[in-house]
């Protein structure tokens, strides 16, 4: 009692039940909410990256390239690490393919900034 409990914070924010069980009528509601929140965050970040790409990056401002690369690296490390930790090897492999697909144009853009 009185100690910080991360699961209470998570439940308080609406990301799951106290007992960690998603049973009965709750699974569909929970998954829809989770996907809605995550989807909104992704759209928000992609909007930011898009604005950086069509503005400062197009003007060849090197900080913009670094901002996009940092976002990709953070995504890759966190998503791939969590996927491997949770046993989703297939998703981690997909991330590697996707990261390579992102690295190719980012490398070409970097050469243009020099």
SS strand fraction: under 5%
Counting DSSP H or I runs of 4 or more residues, the number of helices is: 4
The percent of residues in helical segments reads over 70%
* Terminus-to-terminus distance: 58 Å
**CA-based shape:** elongated
**Major sheet summary line:** none
User: What structural class results from the helix and strand content?
Assistant: mainly alpha
- Rg result: 19 Å
- Beta-strand segment tally: 0
SSE sequence, one letter per element: HHHH
Low-confidence stretches: none
Average pLDDT across residues? 83
Explain what the structure shows.
The protein has 114 residues and is mainly α. 77% of the residues lie in helices and 0% in strands. Helix 2 runs antiparallel to helix 3.
How are the SSEs ordered, and which strands pair?
Layout: H1 6-12, H2 26-57, H3 62-85, H4 89-113
Key descriptive features of the protein:
114 residues, mainly alpha, 4 helices, 77% helix, elongated
Provide a brief overview of the structure.
With 114 residues, this protein is mostly helical.
């Amino acid at each position: 009692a009185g100690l910080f409990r991360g699961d209470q914070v998570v439940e308080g924010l609406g990301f799951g039940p106290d007992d960690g069980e998603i049973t009965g009528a709750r699974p569909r509601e929970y998954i829809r909410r989770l996907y809605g929140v995550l989807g909104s965050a992704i759209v928000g970040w992609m909007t930011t990256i898009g604005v950086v790409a069509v503005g400062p990056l197009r003007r060849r401002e090197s900080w913009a390239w670094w901002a996009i690369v940092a976002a990709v690296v953070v995504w890759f490390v966190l998503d791939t690490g969590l996927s491997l930790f949770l046993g989703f090897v297939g998703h981690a492999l997909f991330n590697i393919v996707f990261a390579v697909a992102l690295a190719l144009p980012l490398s070409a853009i970097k050469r243009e900034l020099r």
